[in-house]
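User: Can you model how zinc ion sits in this protein?
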Amino acid sequence: MGKVSVSLLSSDFGYLADACRMVNGSRAWSLHLDVMDGVFVPNISYGFPVIEAIARNAEKPMDAHLMTVEPSRYYQQYKDLGIEWLTVHYETCPHLNRDLQEIRRLGMKAGIALNPSTPVSVLEQAVHYADLVLIMSVNPGFGGQVFLKETYKKIQQLCLLRKEQHLGFMIQVDGGVNDTNSDELYRAGADILVAGNYVFSAKEPLAAINAIM
Ligand code: DX5
Ligand code: ZN
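Assistant: Here's the modeled complex, given as structure tokens:
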């Protein structure tokens, strides 16, 4: 059985507290918060005041996925808001090792996210400092996109890298996850699946979460 992280991006933002309560009462592992700045990705989602409101209603651990340039300017604020897992994009961090060490020093778990066009091989040096690697299975910026099949191979390559280097980071997959690809993703080696649109467009979100665990 795998772990599910529910992305609030596709929820109705007029009823965020209700979405949080649904996740609180579910078997999901965490609440996935997608922060977009309109610079690294062609969309803007939400920032600190909204995360603060989510945090007031969340009982699951919060896992933040930063699709923002210069993320290190704000690590302390994420910590103060109660974020437990903080994931930054490889493509936004020229000094990635330093970023990951800083996130850990602040007492959070550190994650690295990779765009679909970025190969797993770039992680060889930095992955020692990571508690999680997030493989994007769509181009970041929007919920509800179609899953990219190249993802399976990247998960397998990452599993191999983890084994060769005797490491214990978790493998998270994000984008286009649903009940037609979840089993194969776990079989390929994914530990955590992020799901947004699939959960929030379902008639029964709790059943949808169970269906991809
Ligand atoms: C996309 C975000 C995802 C998104 C996944 O840039 O990182 O977390 O919410 O959404 P679905 O599950 O709708 O593809
Ligand atoms: Zn995400």
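A couple of observations from the model: The domain at 3-211 is CATH 3.20.20.70 (TIM Barrel). The CA atoms of residues 112 and 119 lie 13 Å apart.
User: Helpful, thanks.
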